[in-house]
Each structure stands twice: as structure tokens, then as C-alpha cells.
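FORM 12-B: Structure-to-Sequence Request
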């Protein structure tokens, strides 16, 4: 019984390490692993639908290095949602200050389904996002 437990624990540790490595490679963590762009992202969805307000807070956690040339963009199902500002250019992010950015999300479909929206924090002229956050959208109330 102890050997079975040890074997399962070993498998669990390997799977956890693989998933952690995958999340670092795809930048799908809420904190940047790039030492040149030390950023943290936090997102909130407000409202009960069919219109939601998405507030994204970006925090430069560097000691003294400002961050330049950044933008937020979104990946979502256009059959379900419409985002009022799908591209948000960020100003210079001074260290130690949390910057809130907001946009509105309208539910296009009348079906009672929801989906995920990916928020990508990117630097201009780069291929890989610095941070990716995944938001699970709530089911929208039916418009009366």
C-alpha cells in the first residue's frame, strides 16, 4: 500500500512539473517570468449580462525599471461575445503602481452558454505574449 502511494505521488509530481513547464512556455501565468518585463496581471468581470465590464489591472513589480510599448488584446469567440475595445495600448508603466484598464463585453448569442476569454499582455514587435490570463465568463442573463 505504501509503495502504491509513493508511486502515485511520484506520478503526481511529474505531471505537476510538466504542467508548470508548459505554463511557463506558453506564458499562461498571471506573473511574468521575463526578468526584463516584471509584470503582474489581474482581471475581474462585473455585471450579470448581457453587458459585462471587464477590468484588467496591470502592475509593474520591478524595483526601478519602467515598462514601455505594451498592449492588451483579447482572444474570444466572436459568435458569443463582442468586446468594445479589443486592443488597448498601455502607457508607460511606472514601477509599484497598479494600472486599471476596462472594456465592455456584450453577449451576442441568446443561448445560455459561456466561454473563456484570453487576455494577452504583449510587447510591440514580439511574437510571444508576456502574460496570458484566461477568464471564465459567467452565463449571461436573458435580456428582457
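FORM 12-B RESPONSE
SEQUENCE OUT:
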Amino acid at each position: 500500500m505504501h509503495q502504491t502511494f509513493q508511486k502515485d505521488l511520484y506520478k503526481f509530481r511529474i505531471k505537476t512539473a510538466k504542467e508548470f513547464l508548459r505554463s511557463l512556455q506558453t506564458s499562461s501565468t498571471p506573473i511574468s517570468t521575463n526578468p526584463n518585463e516584471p509584470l503582474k496581471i489581474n482581471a475581474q468581470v462585473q455585471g450579470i449580462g448581457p453587458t459585462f465590464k471587464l477590468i484588467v489591472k496591470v502592475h509593474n513589480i520591478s524595483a526601478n525599471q519602467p515598462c514601455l510599448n505594451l498592449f492588451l488584446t483579447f482572444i474570444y469567440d466572436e459568435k458569443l461575445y463582442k468586446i468594445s475595445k479589443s486592443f488597448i495600448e498601455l502607457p508607460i508603466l511606472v514601477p509599484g503602481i497598479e494600472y486599471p484598464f476596462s472594456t465592455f463585453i456584450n453577449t451576442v448569442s441568446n443561448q445560455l452558454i459561456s466561454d473563456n476569454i484570453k487576455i494577452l499582455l504583449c510587447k510591440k514587435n514580439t511574437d510571444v505574449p508576456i502574460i496570458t490570463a484566461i477568464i471564465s465568463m459567467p452565463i449571461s442573463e436573458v435580456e428582457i
